[in-house]
């Protein structure tokens, strides 16, 4: 009788507890944006909103400087200390998935219907990561320059041809009005080189690796099309059409605004500063070098680490963060391309008729992913060196052959990186 009374009292006490009395399960999250207070503030707001929206999960955010972030994740993976939710640069994701750092994202694909392709991270047929934005490149110049030098304004449907683009650069150079007609951003010698210049190679008809099976770079990085690209690339610096690898970073950042450069090959994250400086800035599509105009796609994305014991909670947070209002908030604050049409319509800069709306169309029409392979982490470093060496006068064919040898050796050493 006493036991029955005790059990009944216990049950009554338990059921009388309010729902909030049970502690939410903590989910750890790492993010690369410690050096960007605006970006970090928005993410902190999303975390706060998510935590307040339900009682099951509590996300705890830790931010890292971008330059050390990837190394921190790699070290944590080796030590078995990965968080639940991780931030990953889109082209790096396949390597982290293949290396066992990440697990497939348990999310209903209807939640990402209508997302820009570059914002969806897939590896081995499964979704691993989703981005809250994408990025896009454009040829940035001024309408007054186009008018003064009688230069046709290209469109998505009718971009500049390779010959037309070359003639434009020579005309601008011969005018004597600019230090260089084209700024390529050679001072930014890191992933920018692959993100910004691989699309040129692809438009010529080459590539970083044969994407039919990702087992070799032979024929695509050193074939006739790639050599034609390399010779054109090298000629830009031989003819003083663009500053080379010794470019001062300050000139890269400010050269277009101060009038030193006529055309700036740059990303949408730099567009707002140009709009503030000039009222006639235009953002133009990439030239077509023979196989269609292309620009880089894929930026930072969110995924679930392989160590997480609560992937459903991590996925719940990621899906929560994908709301158009948050995508638009990032766009308004840092200028990147909203990942959906709905978010673009809510964005101050990307809604119809807004000054950066063109970038959504560029990303959708010309966006080209970097090779979706775990081997990319090596391939990009090889390509960056080859691009720099050719710009500095190295023999084009020998440089590309050497790059192929390095990439193929790495693929063989890693047994093909799991491609079937």
Automatic annotation (TrEMBL):
Superkingdom of this protein's organism: Bacteria
Signal peptide: 1-23
InterPro entries assigned: SBP
Keyword Manganese listed: no
UniProt cross-references to Gene3D superfamilies, sorted A to Z: Periplasmic binding protein-like II
Keyword Cytoplasm belongs to the record: no
GO MF, any single term: maltose binding
Matching Pfam families: SBP_bac_8
Keyword list, A-Z: Periplasm, Signal, Transport
GO cellular component: ATP-binding cassette (ABC) transporter complex, substrate-binding subunit-containing
Biological processes, Gene Ontology terms: maltodextrin transmembrane transport; maltose transport
Family under the similarity heading: Belongs to the bacterial solute-binding protein 1 family.
Protein name, as recorded: Sugar ABC transporter substrate-binding protein
Source organism of this protein record: Martelella lutilitoris
């Amino acid at each position: 009788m006493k036991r029955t009374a005790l059990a009944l009292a216990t049950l009554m006490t338990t059921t009388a507890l309010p729902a909030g009395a049970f502690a939410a399960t903590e989910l750890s999250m790492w993010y690369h944006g410690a050096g960007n207070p605006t970006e970090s503030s928005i993410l902190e707001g999303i975390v706060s909103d998510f935590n307040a929206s339900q009682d099951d999960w509590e996300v705890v955010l830790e931010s890292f400087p971008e330059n050390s972030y990837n190394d921190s994740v790699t070290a944590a993976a080796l030590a078995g200390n990965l968080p639940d939710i991780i931030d990953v640069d889109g082209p790096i994701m396949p390597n982290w998935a293949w290396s066992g750092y990440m697990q497939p994202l348990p999310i209903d694909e209807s939640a990402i219907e209508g997302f820009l392709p570059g914002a969806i991270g897939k590896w081995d047929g499964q979704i691993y990561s989703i981005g809250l934005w994408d990025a896009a490149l454009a040829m940035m110049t001024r309408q007054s320059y186009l008018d003064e030098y009688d230069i046709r304004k290209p469109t998505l449907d009718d971009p500049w041809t390779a010959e037309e683009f070359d003639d434009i650069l020579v005309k601008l150079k011969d005018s004597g009005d600019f230090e260089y007609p084209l700024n390529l951003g050679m001072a930014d010698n890191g992933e920018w080189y692959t993100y910004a210049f691989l699309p040129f190679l692809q438009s010529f008809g080459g590539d970083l690796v044969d994407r039919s099976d990702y087992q070799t770079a032979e024929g695509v990085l050193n074939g006739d099309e790639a050599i034609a690209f390399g010779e054109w690339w090298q000629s830009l610096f031989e003819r003083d059409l663009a500053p080379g690898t010794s470019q001062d970073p300050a000139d890269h950042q400010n050269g277009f605004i101060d009038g030193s450069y006529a055309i700036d090959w740059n990303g949408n994250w730099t567009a707002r500063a140009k709009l503030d400086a000039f009222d006639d800035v235009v953002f133009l599509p990439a030239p077509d070098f023979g196989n269609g105009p292309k620009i880089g796609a894929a930026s930072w994305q969110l995924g679930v680490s392989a160590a997480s014991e609560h992937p459903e909670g991590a996925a719940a947070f990621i899906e929560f963060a994908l709301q158009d209002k948050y995508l638009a908030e990032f766009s308004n604050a840092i200028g990147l391309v909203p990942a959906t049409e709905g978010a673009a319509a809510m964005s101050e800069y990307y809604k119809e008729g807004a000054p950066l709306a063109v970038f959504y169309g560029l990303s959708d029409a010309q966006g080209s992913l970097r090779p979706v392979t775990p081997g990319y982490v090596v391939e990009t470093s090889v390509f960056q060196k080859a691009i720099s060496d050719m710009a500095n006068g190295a023999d084009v064919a020998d440089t590309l052959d050497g790059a192929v040898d390095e990439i193929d050796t790495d693929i063989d050493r890693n047994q093909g990186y799991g491609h079937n």
